[in-house]
Amino acid sequence: MPINYEQLMAMKNLGQKYSYTDREVMLYAYGIGMGADPMDENELAFVNEATATPRPLKVVPTFASVAAWGAGPGEMKLNRVMVVDGERDITFHKPLQTVAHITADSSVLAVFDKGKDKGAVIRHQTVLRNSDGEALATLVASRFARGDGGFGGPSEGQPEPHQVPARSPDRTIDIATRPDQALIYRLCGDRNPLHADPEFAKRAGFPKPILHGMCTYGITCRGILQTYADYDPSAFKRHAARFSSAVYPGETVTLEMWRDGDVISFEAKVKARGITVIKNGMTVLA
To answer: What is the enclosing helix (H) or strand (E) of 56?
Structure first.
């Protein structure tokens, strides 16, 4: 069925209840590759609770993307095989705790029609709140529904992407992914078979399962944590990026970063294939 623009724009789902513990916090950090070096104390602070010398467990800021996994405005009835993540933009209002009961308020912000053969873009928002009703994080997501264009909706008005500087990057780091990383990351909530089922991936037009775009997004957060944020999650005020191409598990992601005051611009590439996988990235630090 074609998209019903009015119905989609009216969708909202308020007061969705979720909870998580330190298990989910550590699983997410491990899912984006933290702890690959079992002697790196900076990263171990996100993946174990330390008993010999007790210390607080840290929460990766982008854990917000899975803390209420499944929250959303409702069933959009899109062609699932053809849907991919387009963008993610998270604003952090308060640091996430290691154990929490939270609520999620979700609504559709905009729907853009790129054309019958070009697909549709759906922008929706989820606000995570603590048990006192205080906002913890605001997540804005864009879904690119490649098989759902041509419904007669507006085609103009999408927000302009953040532009990275034209100069050479100020810092560049390489972050390796594991061949089984998608199988681990999917345990954080996203069971889309595109990331685990070889046959499903081929039907979707990929030679093999791809890494979750949101895992790559988390990897970029990890990269900025270790370079410009001194592994301090509370330093993050915003983390936004556009997904431009898929990463295959086992590839090395090269993160290029530019610093201008409190703003870190970034892009991510897989140099082995000569492609950019994350574009227009922006982190705002405290």
So the answer is: none
